[in-house]
């Protein structure tokens, strides 16, 4: 098995007396899409925040490409290849849609720049930004102020910005939440295409099990901050631990091959 792109070892965070993420050890590999599921308050978003650097762990380790990044903040981890769509908060509301993406293209090139890199022109940046916008179906509203976009389009713009950073790890936290029925397929199709590239590590927090089933190669389940199941989607969904802890039901049939816990 090749070295994981991203790994957590005994990752833990306490808020006062509450352990929101409790000694979670898990490795994520290139070319895979892992869905993280669990009931409300299970610790999914907190686990994401610990991996992307928005929160600092109480104990445990985060490794990115085999390097310990536990001490790095979010900006440092972004520079090393973690991409996350941040539910609107990272948009520049008073810039146009295309300028928002152009800044991300430029930031990525600045990170990659060396003495020997030829700087791209403003026109190149705009062309690249337009290509990312087309991927999320926002090409037609490129000159609209970000603030004026409807909610679903703001979320698509977040994804375009993340793609423009060309990260190794893509983190999606409920990517279709708040989207209208006709917008959902655009984002799901995009995630399918990213996955089809076969060289990215994709993490998805998602409540909708039909979305999880259609996208995930693997499911991990968090419950009360602990990793309680990890395995193939069909196996994990059928397992007693998911039926009881996540779906709140007793299993209909004996669990077909309990998830390796
Ligand atoms: N900054 C914080 N301070 C105190 N408690 C927090 C903080 N952030 C999260 N928590 C608590 O940690 C637990 C895990 O929250 P988290 O948001 O990670 O769960 P989740 O699985 O993402 O839930 P949901 O599916 O509802 O989004 C919850 O009990 C939450 O109240």
From TrEMBL:
One of its GO terms (molecular function) is ATP binding. GO terms for cellular component: plasma membrane. Residues 6-249 form the ABC transporter domain. Keywords: ATP-binding, Nucleotide-binding, Transport. It comes from the Bacteria. This is ABC transporter ATP-binding protein.
């Amino acid at each position: 098995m090749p070295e994981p792109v991203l790994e957590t070892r005994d990752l833990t965070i306490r808020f006062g007396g509450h352990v929101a993420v409790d000694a979670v050890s898990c490795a994520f590999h290139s070319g895979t899409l892992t869905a993280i599921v669990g009931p409300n308050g299970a610790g999914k978003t907190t686990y994401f925040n610990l991996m992307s650097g928005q929160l600092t762990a109480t104990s445990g380790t985060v490794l990115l490409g085999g390097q310990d990044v536990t001490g790095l903040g979010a900006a440092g981890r972004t520079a090393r290849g973690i991409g996350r769509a941040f539910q609107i908060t990272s948009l520049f509301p008073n810039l146009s849609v295309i300028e928002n993406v152009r800044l991300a293209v430029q930031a990525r090139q600045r990170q990659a720049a060396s003495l020997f890199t030829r700087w791209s022109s403003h026109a190149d940046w705009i062309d690249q930004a337009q290509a990312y916008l087309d991927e999320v179906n926002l090409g037609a509203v490129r000159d609209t102020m970000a603030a004026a976009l409807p909610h679903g389009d703001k979320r698509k713009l977040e994804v375009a910005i993340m793609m423009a950073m060309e990260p190794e790890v893509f983190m999606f936290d409920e990517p279709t939440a708040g989207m209208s029925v006709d917008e959902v397929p655009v984002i799901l199709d995009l995630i399918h295409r990213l996955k089809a590239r076969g060289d990215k590590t994709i993490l998805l927090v998602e409540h909708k099990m039909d979305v999880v089933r259609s996208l995930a190669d693997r499911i991990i389940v968090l419950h009360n901050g602990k990793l309680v199941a990890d395995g193939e989607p069909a196996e994990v969904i059928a397992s007693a631990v998911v039926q009881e802890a996540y779906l709140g039901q007793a299993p209909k049939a004996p669990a077909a091959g309990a998830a390796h816990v």
